[in-house]
Amino acid sequence: MTFVSSFEPRPLWAHFDRILEIPRGSKEEDRIRRHVTLLAERHGLEHDTDATGNLVVRKPGTAGRENAPVTILQGHLDMVNEKDSDVAHDFASDPIRPRQEGEWLHATGTTLGADNGIGVAAMLALLEASDVPHGPLELLFTIDEETGLTGASGLDASLLSGRRLINLDSEEEGDVTVGCAGGAGTVLRLPVESAAATGTALTLRLRGLRGGHSGIDIVLQRGNALKLLARILTAASEAASFRLVRLEGGNMHNAIPREAAAAVLVEGDTAAFRAAIEAELAAVKAEFQSADPGMTLEIGAATSPGRAFSPEATATVLRLLEALPHGVLAMSPDIPGLVETSTNVATVKVEGDTLVVGTSSRSSAGSALRAAERRITAIAELAGAAVEHGHGYPGWKPDLKSPLLATVKALQLEVYGHEPKIVAVHAGLECGIIGEKAPGMDMVSIGPQIEAPHSPNERVHIESVGRFWRLLAVVLDRLSA
Ligand SMILES: [Zn+2]
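Above: the input record for the complex with zinc ion. Below: its predicted structure, written as tokens.
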């Protein structure tokens, strides 16, 4: 045990201190799940683990509150294992070494695992607590949140009887999260005809864009390297005749592409082509001067492969990429500043005689997500591309009339002295998936102040954990009174 056990509230911090010693990277939750299971057994509490590995511990209500409605508390057992490259640390066996800096708790060269270790520690403290009045509790510990929400996706919701759930995985103190985006991916396959061709071979490489997470960062209006390269080439096609040899960029479905590259065969003099490229590039750079100041385009000479896309295929590829939407499609009418629906042209590559385009769309409204998918399908079919819909996951539409939200709001005013900020995120959360598996579930998400999660700079504000605990305690009291 370390100095962390002396922080207030002691029961929560002592549990957090203990789990710092337990390796719990995503998909390696066996040891931490056994730790929680043993604790439940020591207290004579009923528990179940589903086939996926999620654990539910049931704690009866305290005296006089045995018949109050069940409340589910939920957190994820896994953490992101990240370390500085010069730090010797084996996540499979070494304990996380906590370090205090002023009001903050850090780890030493690694992630701290406050995401979601503080939430888990709060649930363990409640599991043991005799001084917090509450109704019947279902403590839901999910696995593998961090690498694709697979724990929540495989959850056996029949283990849960409650219909209100407090997720403890928020990272902004004072915020109450009430919604998230669902997502869906689409792969377009466009047949491209190639033929022998002559001309001057040139390569174009657009890079230096900021990119970012295709959900969280889409609101920043950064450039999409694939869309911009297609735009620049389309502009050049008005001034010079060329054929595409290849076009590619992006490598992750959930990132805004930062780089894109093309090879072309230019017929005749290349001066007009280069001038048109430079002119459109200058216009693009001016538009994106604040969002993407580092953007550069290199034009290089190459040896001709002697083949290229046909003129028709070249035109179709550029038209398809020009027509596909990218970025924010709609803002939320309910929550200021929240993106409701967005889409990202994520990846483009050439496989044999096929151009393969991957897109990913997100929305907190399921119907808007399906509409975005239909729009992409329509454009793809106009271009003659085949469309495959990949695995999607559901969103969580904000319910501003939620009774649980009303209770949390009122009590947060008491604990914090101000009303919470009601927020939703434009990315996937476990609540979206749980809400789909357990229809009618009333849900909110709260947490202490955690910064830079998933990086060795991760830190948690020590006193915010105390306020988070008090809020949780008064909410459980009120919900069962
Ligand atoms: Zn988390």
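Notes for the reader.
The mean pLDDT is 96.
Residues 76, 115-116, 145, 169 surround zinc ion (CB under 6 Å).
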